[in-house]
């Protein structure tokens, strides 16, 4: 599974999110060094908010052709489920991200593309102003009523997700299969409120499989008390939080099994949000030509050996530099893009070249993902080593050849 973001706009959509503003620090005094950049927007189509440049250009997340290509690439990389960002019911005030985008309108096109490429879709419930456990009940009801019958929506159970990785995730509705929901920032709502709705007799009981975010050590116990089915780590920076520290994953997985829950460690190729959060240097993790990604995958495989599944952060969160989507080099021409004053304020004087995936090429991270996806599905005895497990080489040719 991979987390997929639906907030991008092309020229007709005013380059939404590609023109992301530089964000303020939550403690203003800690962001003073970048005060002359804060609030200013990037300048697509010449220059975007991210360190990398997408191979397919500045696309729209609502473009059916783009969505089909993305689903095809995921499938070729061994990913079977796109976990799409969802920012709430569009008729509710405040249900949008920091750039004013509500993603619900894109979901029908995503489902159509997923069905065409034999992919499945789960939902990443994002936080919005005034969100409560009771409002999430209405969110889930809305999603189930509007999209629940679509054949591209993943239907599964806690048992299927908690089984060994070689076990199929999909469970038919007549066998108890229900949609899968990841609840981002779930810890902002008290465990007692979640338990009221997730326990037997509650409005959400058996209406979905629900995973909460494990950020702090205490979140694991809170999620168990809240009657969640599982927990996921999401964050890309190893060491940033308790949940995203890879040395904690085996312990989290063991405790989850003891609590009757499922743990999904989230792996990432790196982290770099310095263009939109220039004050966040401590969270930066370089990619090391795929070395960082591989190390997280190895830790994840060890954590889910006895059961569980891996989530990839992310397919296309370009602003945080966690995407595995194919990228190419890009150079901003003199006199184009953001003004030099903004470049200087960001601490990037003279920088005009994007990052890229190096000599391995645009499809590098899809190929790495495919290698580990094959290993994930192998018996535990075959999950070691550096390449595809013995006797389980990737079918077909390279990812690029399949595309």
UniProtKB/TrEMBL annotation:
InterPro entries reported in the protein's UniProt record: Glyco_Hydrolase_99
Keywords, comma-separated and alphabetical: Golgi apparatus, Hydrolase, Membrane, Signal-anchor, Transmembrane, Transmembrane helix
CDD domains per record: GH99
Membrane topology: Single-pass type II membrane protein
Subcellular location: Golgi apparatus membrane
PANTHER family assigned: ENDO-ALPHA-1,2-MANNOSIDASE, RE57134P
Family statement: Belongs to the glycosyl hydrolase 99 family.
Basic and acidic residues bias locations: 345-356
Name assigned to this protein: Uncharacterized protein
Principal subcellular localisation of the protein: Golgi
Alphabetized GO MF terms: alpha-mannosidase activity
Top-level lineage group: Eukaryota
GO terms under cellular component: Golgi membrane
Organism lineage: Eukaryota, Sar, Stramenopiles, Bigyra, Opalozoa
Pfam families found in the cross-reference section: Glyco_hydro_99
Region (Disordered): 330-357, 376-403
